Amino acid sequence: MTEQAFLAQIDEIIDGHHLLKHPFYQLWNEGKLTLEMLQEYATEYYLQVHHFPTYVSATHAACDDLEIRQMLLENLIEEERGSANHPELWLRFAEGLGVDREAVLERQNLDKTTESVRILKELARSKNVVKGLAALYAYEAQIPEVSTTKIAGLQNYYGIDSADAVSFFKVHEKADEVHSQMTRDALVKLCSTEEQKQAAISATQDAVFAFNLLLDGIYEQYCQAA
Questions:
Q1: Which pLDDT tens digit goes with each residue over 181-203?
Q2: Domains, the chain, with CATH or none
Q3: Deepest in the core among 48, 156, 189, 194, taking most CB within 10 A?
Q4: Is 116 helix (H, G, I), strand (E, B) or coil?
């Protein structure tokens, strides 16, 4: 498989299961979610945001390539450094929706949320580092566009535009453009054999399933019954 065909197959998998095609995000972009639905989403999704730095960290630890480790370290530092770390920014988003941060931190998560996190942790902790990289790319390749549409929906339909409420998405509009390209380059560098390419493709499929699984649980629990 050529490098071009390899990347095209990964991108096709991501596009076919793009988060913006999920019914929950489509309702968001159409202004059809209630504030209560958004609050449940913000409270539930925090588990993914809380654990995402550990996916980066585990992939970093599994990698023998110094240049790629340095890239992952920079990513991890951005995720967790200082008082404005990314989990903290998500908590500020939840507070901007009127949710108490203690309610977020004490949440009893849905089964599909915990399963989503389990799958992604397993990919990141795999002995085959390309699986962790592919999972990171599957997320980071989508997030700039997802973040832009989330900000627009919050502002246009819900009147939510305070700096704290949208800071998580503002950061990811730009940061993941860089991260996704660097992770994409790392995949090309490490996937020199057919076996490695197939492992990356399989991990991409597992990752996009996991990211959508979390939204499935939220949609089924809070939107279908409404």
A1: 999 999 999 999 999 999 999 99
A2: 3-223 (1.20.910.10)
A3: 48
A4: helix
